[in-house]
Structures are given as C-alpha cells and as structure tokens.
Amino acid sequence: MNRFCAFLRGVNVKGTSMKMAEVCGVFSQAGMKNVSSVLATGNIVFNSEKNSVELKVVLEKAMSEHFIYDAYLFIKTEREVKEIFDKNPFETSTDHHIYAFVGIEEVEKTLLEEFQKAEKSEDEKGEIVRKTFYWQVKKGNTLNSNFGKTLGKKSLKDKMTSRNINTFEKILKKF
Questions:
Q1: In the CATH scheme, what is the code of domain 86-174?
Q2: What distance in Å separates the CA atoms of residue 86 and residue 99, rounded to the nearest whole number?
C-alpha cells in the first residue's frame, strides 16, 4: 500500500466550505485507508493500492457527489511531496511567502509563462525545478500581485493548486 497526499483546489474559499473531518470521511468511504487531514486547506494524507491517475478519478467523483461542487484535486506520493519540499529554490525569509504548485502534467510551463507576462512586485520570483513551479512573493502581496490575480483564472482552476512551502513541511510530518 502506498502513501499519498491529495491537494484539493478551492477548499474553504469563495463559499466552498468543508469540514476536514467530513472530507476524510468521503475519502474513507471511497476506499482510502489511514486518512487524515493537514490544516483546513484541503490536504488529505491517506493510503491506497491504486495509482495517482486512478485515485484522481475516484476521489474527484466522490468529492463532487458528496459536496455537490466541481472537485479538483491533485495526488502526490510521499516521495513527490518530499522532493517538492527539498527542491525549493528560494531561501526561507520572514519577509516572503514561498509557494509550490501541484497540478496536471506540464502546468509548470503554463505558470512560468503567466509569471513572465505579469508585472512583478519587489523581490517577486518564479522558477521551475524539475516539474514544479515555485513562486516567491513579499508577504502581503500574494493576492495583490499581478501573478497572484492570474492564478484565479477560470482556465486554470482544473489544472493546478498551490500551497505555501510550510504546508509541505507539515504534510511530510504526517507521512
């Protein structure tokens, strides 16, 4: 049995409110084992015999039916989560947030293109390492930056989600 983390998109924002205990229940009912959540932002750690592709289909369907919304989630193995955390190209700072993006195949290229087109704020950086796009932005500028506004595009909602790099650290402790 393999250990995974599902990163749900759009949880507890813009009117989509979910209790993580209820989300864990949906995962358990869908056949996942040892299910637990990390924070209230839709990070669900679990075990399964299925692969990431199968899990995405099964869990999006279960979540969509239970919560009556278009569920989008992205599955990473324990090894992949560790790699995302370990490959962060930016130095940790009390003045900046660092985000890593998980999503569909090659979404990192789309994100880099969008980042390059956007007007940057002070100290704002974006970089791809392996197949992950990382974004550093000054604290307080996340939602106000041009790139931050781009992330809310409807065309991207089924393609990716992001988490602060600190969230990856917390997830790793749950594995």
A1: 3.30.70.1260
A2: 13
